[in-house]
Amino acid sequence: KRPAGAPDRKLARPVSKVGVVGAGLMAGQLALLFARRLKVPVVLTDIDQDRVDKGVAYVHAEIEKLLGKKRLSQDAANRTRSLVTGSVSKDVFSDADFVIEAVFEEMSVKKQVFAEVEAVVSPECILATNTSSLSVAEMAADLVHPERVVGFHFFNPVAAMPLLEVVRAPTTDDAVLATAFVLAKGLKKNAVLVQDAPAFVVNRILGRMFGEITAVFDEGTDAATADDALRPMGLPMTPFRLLALVGLPVGQHVQESLHAAFGERFHVSANQRTLIDAGIKGLWVKQEDGTETVPEQTLALME
Ligand code: 3HC
Which of 22, 211, 217, 268 is in the most buried spot, having the most CB atoms within 10 Å? Predict the structure, then answer.
C-alpha cells in the first residue's frame, strides 16, 4: 500500500550510486544502511582524510559486529565492505543518483555543502538532508534545481529505529518524492510524509519532553533523580539517556530551532549548554559493575 501522500512509485528514478556527505557517526550509520540494504556503491566524503578514514573504519567495525552476531553472512559482509568507500573530494559524486548530507547542524554549512555538491552532480541527482530541525526549503532556495531537494530524516540508532521522516518542501518535485519513498522501502524503513515545519514531527514532540526535563534541572531539581523517576514510565530510554544517544549538541540545536519558531513552549536549557561547553557527552556514566551514576563534576556544573 502506498504511504499517505507518496506519489505514484512509477515516477521514481533508479538509484545505482549513493553519496553521503560527512563521515561522522550519523553519516557512517547511513553509509552502512544504504550499502547493506540497497547493495549499491556508497561513497562518503568529509573535509579531511583522517575523518574520511574514521568514517570508513566505523562502517567496517559495525560490519564485524554484525558478522559476530550472525546478523550478516560472510558474503554479505564482504560485499557491503567493498561497496563503501571514502574520499575528500566531492568529485566522486559526479555519477551519484542520490546524495544525502549529514554534516554539522547549521544552515550556512548545509547550504554550502549543497551548492558544492550541485556543482558536480547531474541535474537529476537527488539531494537529501538528514537535518533534525532546519528548513528544507531554505536549504534548497539558492540552488539551480531546488526541486531536487528532499528531507530524509533518520533516527538514532539508525539500524534499530524503523521510522523515517520524508520531508516535502514546497519546491520538492513529485519524482524526487517518489524516489525517496521507493528508497525507504528498500532500506526497510517505515517512511511517513511530513511537512517542512521546525523539527518536523518526532523531534517537535521530543522537544517538549527535553524542554521540560531540562527546565526542571535548570530550576534546581537533582538531575539524576528527575531522570530516573521516569524509568518506570515505559519509555525505552529516559530523557537524559536519550539525549546522550542523539548527542547533547544535536539536542540543543533542535531545541533552539523550536524555540525560535514557537517561543517559550520550548525551553532552551542553560545547564545543557554548560555541559556541552564542558565537553560532557551525557549525564549518566556506566560503572564497571554496570550501574550508572552522574559524576560529581557534572552535578557541580548544574548547580
Ligand atoms: N547500533 C545498531 N543497532 C543497535 C544499537 C546501535 N547503537 N543499539 C541497539 N541496536 C539494536 C540491537 O542490535 C537490537 O537489534 P536486534 O534485536 O535485531 O538484535 C535492537 O537494537 C534492540 O537492542 P537491545 O535489545 O540491545 O536493547 P534495547 O531493547 O534496550 O533497545 C534501543 C535499544 C532500540 C536503542 C531502545 O532503547 C530504543 O528504542 N531507544 C529509544 C531510541 C530513540 O527514541 N531514538 C530516537 C531519538 S531522536 C533522533 O534520533 C532524531 C535526531 O534528529 C535527534
Answer: 22
In a 3-state reduction of DSSP, which class is residue 146? helix
Q: Tell me whether residue 153 is one of the annotated catalytic residues.
A: yes
Note the Cα 78 to chain centre separation in Å. Answer: 26
Q: Could you tell which of 58, 101, 110, 245 is best to mutate to test the pocket of ligand 1, judged by most ligand atoms within 8 Å of the CB?
A: 245
CA distance 268 to 260: 10
DSSP letter (8 states) at residue 88: S
The rounded Å distance from CA 25 to ligand 1 centre is 14
Strands 292-293 and 285-286: antiparallel
Tell me, what's the pLDDT at 248? 94
**DSSP bridge pairs for 149:** 127
How far apart are the CA of 12 and the centre of ligand 1, in A?
A: 30
3-state secondary structure of 21: strand
The structure's pTM equals 0.95
Domains along the sequence of the chain with CATH: 9-195 (3.40.50.720), 203-301 (1.10.1040.10)
Q: Region 95-123: what's the mean pLDDT?
A: 97
